[in-house]
Structure formats: C-alpha cells, structure tokens
Amino acid sequence: MAMTDSPAGVIVMRDHPSQGNETGAGRFSPAWPPFGEFVTLIALMMSIVAFSIDSLLPAFGPIQAHFGVQDPNDLQLVIYAYMAGFGACQLIAGPFADMVGRRPVMVVGLAIYLAGTVLAFLAPGFGWLIAARIVQGMGAAATRVLVVTLVRDRYEGREMAKVMSLVMMLFITVPIIAPALGSLILAVTDWHAIIVAMFLLGAGILAWFMARMPESLRPDYRKPVSAASVGADIGRILRSRLAFGYSTAMLLAIGVVMTYVGMAAQVFQTDVYRLGPVGFPLAFGAIGLLMGLASFVNSRLVMRLGMRKLSHAGLVAFIGVAALMLAVSLAYGGVPPLAIFLPLLGVSHFLASLMMPNFNAMAMERFGDIAGTASSFIGFYSTVGSAVIAGLIARTFDSTLIPLCAGYLGLGLACLGAVLVAERGRLFRPHHAA
User: Fold this and answer.
1) What integer pLDDT is reported at residue 135 of this predicted model?
2) Domain presence at residue 335
3) How far is Cα 145 from Cα 152, in angstroms, rounded to an integer?
C-alpha cells in the first residue's frame, strides 16, 4: 500500500506500483543500469559501512596492545565513533543531494571517507584513531543516504521494500565475511592492512558509481540552496506521525544490531565464550547469514503480504524471543551454553531483519519529492539515536549476557510503542491519517 501527498495535501492511498518519475515536461527517465547491476552496486555502497565496522572487530586485541588501551570497553569507541560521524553527517548529505544532485554528493562523501581512512592508517595514538574513525564515518554517511535515495528515486512502496530487502540480502554477506577477512589479514600482517582494504573498497565503489550510476534527481524536485527550505522539509517529516513513528521504530531496531556489534568481540572472542580469532568469525558470520536469509524472505513475501504484516509480526515475535533469551541467561547465571544462546540470538536477528527494511520504506513513503532530505534526516535520527542507545547498553557489559538480553527486550518493547504510535494503536493494518 503506497501513500502519496496530493497537491492539496490530502493523503492518497495507492495499491499499484510506481509508474515512473514524471515532470511537467514529460517523463523523466534516468539511464539506470540493469536491475541486477543496480542492486549489486547499491549493496556495495551499503557494504562500505559494514566492512568499516566488522573487519576491525577481530583487531580489538592488537589495537589495544598497539596503543596501550587500559580499559577493554574503550575499544568499543572504535565502532561508536565511526557511527557518530556516520549518523551526524547524514543530515548534511541528504539536503545537498536534493540541491546539487546525487552524484556530486557521492564523490565528496567518498573523498572524505578515503581521507579519513588515510588518517586512520597514520594515527599515532588511540585518540587520533578515534578522530580518524569519526572522519571515515562522516564520509560514509553519503553512501547510506544515497542508497535509500536512489532506491526511492526508482521505486516506491512495496517495490521499494522488496528492493531494499534484496540490497540487504547482499549487504549482509559483508558481516559474514568481514570478520573472517580481518582475522585472515591479522594472521599474515598487522591491523593496518585492514585499513588499506577499506581504502581499496572505497576507491573501487567510487569508480564504479561514477561510471554507471546516472544523476536521478528530477529537475522539478531540485531544491534551492537554502537552510529555510531544508528546515521546512524536516518540519514536514516531523509532522508526519507515520514517518516519525517508523523512524523511531527503525532507530530502536538498529539499536539491537548496534548493541550486538559493540559487544560481539567480547561475547564471542575474548570474555564470555572465548572462541578466539577462528571461532569468532564463524559465530558472527552465522548471525549475519540468518539476517541475510530474513532479507531474502522479506523480498519474496512483502509484495504479497505487505510491509505491515511482516514487520509487525517480526516485532511481536522478537519481543518474545528477547524475553526468552533473558530468562535463559538468568537461569544460567548470565552465561548459558553456546548451543542454546547462539540459535536464540540468530532467531532474534532474523526477526529484526524482517523489521528494518519495512520500517525504512514506510518512513519514506510520502517523501518522493524530498527523498534525499528525508533519507538523510531519517538516517541521522535513527543512526545517531541507535549509536547512543547501543553505546550506553554496551558500556554495561559485565562478562555476562544479561545486559545484552535485557537491552534487546527493552529495545523491542520501546519499538512496539513507536509502531503503535505511528499506527494509532493498530497493528497489521494501515490507517488513513498522517
């Protein structure tokens, strides 16, 4: 069910897919690459974010030794500093994508990312590394904004959710292989080579994007370079109950993933299960594989069942699984057997992956004419908020799984509250008001 705003501001409900982008002068038809290439390139654009996080997880120990970091929990800053820069600069990248176009923003963003990568390679101290990670995240913000913007430029409604699910399915392969690749690099050389791999990935994506992706900003959608215009667009998003409610729900769902990522190395590699540099990538990859499977399932079912049925069912089930995880952890004194905990963790992330692409698509439904700004604000809000919440939860890590499981349950319940606000208390069925 797609929803658009009529010129008079009346919400129009549409069940048919997008019929293409048209301007007053006729059909606006960018020379999109073939569907498979489009999805692959978009997935790679998203992958730079995950690779920049997950490939460094096995390197926490070497980084701690190299810089003499005293508190192991401080190593989480390698992740959350990147996410802080990544989240904050989305608020800049999106409006500029609506003002000057998609391609210039991508070029500048990846140039900043590559500069931050060089700074990370040369960092003389841990504080410098954290600063460089912020710069990396600032540049990578453009890729996240443009992924959602470009998909929204080409698709809407359930079609957008389907494409985002396919993108997520490919994107999830990065968390599967990135820790293993990081471990492999560490077996041969030191952690700086992981930074080099980030640089090569960023440069390759930039070259492919410039060669194949067209400018897709409709001429009649181009915004003036004006802070007032951006403020008005953000105000429009904030006034939409659906957009703000589902953006908050996405924030909390992403918070689940970010909490896990922040604690993963300590849970699997060092403190709880002590799987070491070989077992950690296998456990981490198994969770990523289930998340990718969920994205594939969503892409196959969303056109038939709809975004609400899939995401709401996933949310309700997630809360139940999170409660079970917490109960099991408490029953075993905080450290249940890996054979019990890992499947439950995998199911919870499978369910979270049914929620996120649908929440994102529903938050974006009404903003085709300001796709860049909407993508950036929603991305800024959900990323910064999730990083802050996940960072606070991760700092409570005490060598047991109780903080992780309690955090999942709290995030799930809060997410349910946000969805109920967005849908005026109704689950599984859309309402007709903003």
Assistant:
1) 97
2) yes
3) 11
**Token pair listed for 259:** 């909490």
Q: Residues 6 or more apart from 240 whose CB is under 8 A from it?
A: 366, 434
CB neighbour class for 136 (10 Å; exposed up to 12, middle 13-18, buried from 19): buried
Using a 10 angstrom Cβ sphere, with 0-12 exposed, 13-18 middle and 19 or more buried, the burial of residue 434 is middle
Residue 21 in domain: no
Our count of domains for the chain comes to: 1
- The answer to whether residue 186 sits within a structural domain is yes
Buried b (16+ CB within 10 A) or exposed e, 263-291: bbbbbbbbbbbebebeebbebbbbbbbbb
Instruction: Provide the whole-model pTM.
Output: 0.71
Q: Are 280 and 179 in contact (CB under 8 A)?
A: yes
Range of the domain at 107: 33-422
Q: How far is the C-alpha of 75 from the C-alpha of 64, rounded, in Å?
A: 7
C-alpha to C-alpha distance for 96 and 345, rounded to whole angstroms: 39
- DSSP per-residue string spanning 135-157: HHHHHHHHHHHHHHHHHHHH--H
CATH assignment of the domain containing 355:
1.20.1250.20
Q: Which residues contact 295 (CB under 8 A, 6 or more apart)?
A: 165, 166, 168, 169, 171, 172, 353, 357
Nearest to 56 by CA among 150, 170, 178: 178
Query: Mean pLDDT per segment of 10 residues, for the chain of length 434 residues?
Result: 32 35 54 89 88 89 91 85 86 83 93 97 95 95 85 80 74 75 90 95 95 87 76 85 91 91 85 85 84 82 86 96 97 95 95 89 80 78 86 89 95 96 84 49
The answer to whether position 23 is within a domain reads no
CB < 8 Å & 24+ apart, contacts of 194-197? 194/55, 194/56, 194/59, 195/117, 195/120, 195/121, 196/121, 197/51, 197/55
